[in-house]
Structures are given as C-alpha cells and as structure tokens.
Amino acid sequence: MLGFAGKFRDFMKLLLPIFLIFATCFLASSCSWQVSFYVVNETDSIIEAEYIIEEERENAETPYKTSLENWNSWFSKNENWSSLKNNEFDFDAKTQTYKVKLNPNEVLRFHQDNDSCVFTTEQRKFHIKKVSVKGERGTIIYEDGDFYRQLAQKGGGYSITYK
C-alpha cells in the first residue's frame, strides 16, 4: 500500500506532462503579436502609396486611414482608424498591387502580419514585396524582403514617413 509520499509522487508524474504542455502553449501564444505597416504623409500635398503583397488573394485586404493628429496621439488610446471602401483604393488581383492616395497629414495602415519573439532576424518574413510612396518631392521605394529593417518602429509596427 502506498503512503502519502507515494501517492503524491504518482500524482506529480501525472501532472508534470499536463503542466509542460500548458506552459509551452502559454509561452508560445504570449510571444506572438500583430505587426502593422504604415505610410505617414507629413506634407501639404496628396501622395500615393503603392504596395505589393506576396500572398495571393482574390479580394483585397482592407487598408485603413487616420489623421496625423490621431497617429501622434495613438498611445493615448485614441484609435480612430477608418476602413477604406473599395472605391477609395485600387487593387489589382493579378499583380496583388494596391494603390492608395493619402491627403496631407493622413496615415495609412496598409498591412498586418504576424511576428513572434521565437523568430530570429533571418526567419522573420513579412508578406510585402514592395512599397513605394510618390509625391511632389520624389519617390521612395523599398523592395527587398528585409526592407522593414530600414523603417521607423512605432506602436508595434513599421512606418514610412513622407516629408
């Protein structure tokens, strides 16, 4: 007959695998997040953002806009993003290319992707082939898969500011 110590040991043997599975799931889920990409228009004129997504979609992923004032106060819980209607942006399903015009002092959130703390820099892969921003002051183009490293980070995302 088992004493208290024997029963406790058997109980712990049963509980240990359950605890390890729970701990692994908890750590994996708490270590991933959404990453957003933004274009910020800090000029006095209209600019055009064009971006190409690697994932093939028949229907467009909805982009969002907000004011520069809202963007700058974003950390004070003021998240007034407006989803764009289909007639407010162009989407070519064949090339997966989006085009969006931004008024002065507007911010575009154009793609969200998943990231994780378990990814190394070499494993991190966002599904954006190219981003270009055109305006009166010229064109900015980012094309390689690691272009996000060149962008400013804010609010859990990467941004291109056109000044």
Structural account:
This protein is of the alpha+beta class. 20% of the residues lie in helices and 40% in strands. It contains 2 helices and 11 strands, in the order αβββαββββββββ. The chain has helices at 4-30, 68-72, and strands at residues 32-41, 47-53, 64-67, 82-83, 90-92, 97-102, 106-116, 128-135, 138-142, 152-154, 157-162. The strands form 2 sheets. A 6-stranded mixed sheet has the order 4-3-7-1-11-10. A hairpin with a 2-residue loop joins strand 8 and strand 9 (138-142). The longest helix is centred in the N-terminal third of the chain and has 27 residues, at 4-30. It is elongated and about 85 Å long. The mean pLDDT is 80.
Query: What is the averaged pLDDT score?
Result: 80
What structural class results from the helix and strand content? alpha+beta
H-E string: HEEEHEEEEEEEE
What would you report as the Rg, rounded to the nearest angstrom? Answer: 23 Å
Question: What is the first-to-last residue Cα distance?
Answer: 80 Å
Number of strands: 11
Main beta-sheet annotation: 6 strands, mixed
- The amount of helix comes to 10-25%
The rough form would be described as elongated
Helices, by number, come to 2
Task: Give the DSSP E fraction (strand runs of 2 or more residues).
Answer: 35-45%
